[in-house]
UMP kinase
Amino acid sequence: MMASVMNSVLLQASLEKIGVETRVQTALMIQEVAEPYVRRRAIRHLEKGRVVIFGGIGAGIGNPLFTTDTAAALRASEINADVVLKGIVGDDEYGCPPRSNSNASFEHISFRELAARGFSRMDMTAVTCCEENNIPVVIFNILEPGNISRAICGDQIGTLVDQSGRIT
């Protein structure tokens, strides 16, 4: 969990370096580097146009068996988020392999199709939580320069997973 908080603080520093106002919230009590998670405060930050990064949220949400993906999906549903951004290392079809042996990556796929394929770089509990709350997921290569900014700005990068999900 501490590594997650450290990554969150590094992401915050990177975003603020390019002028994006950001807050880090965590379930851990480390007020020197992050605010405690308070749902209403997170929503207020978002209303003010700030990016809110939830760090150290796996076991810190009181459920030690939750992955960070599931905890992020839960937080997203709590604050009525528009989207969950899932940054992964690498670009191997963004975690959504095609059924054939082609190397084509998906730009858009449904939650149901993702589940039917049986493999994703995001755990299926998180995918199901996002599906049930109608929160799209963008899975993208976090190491590609500029991808985080593009994801935040809503540009098409990686794979969009949502209810309609036409495979393209």
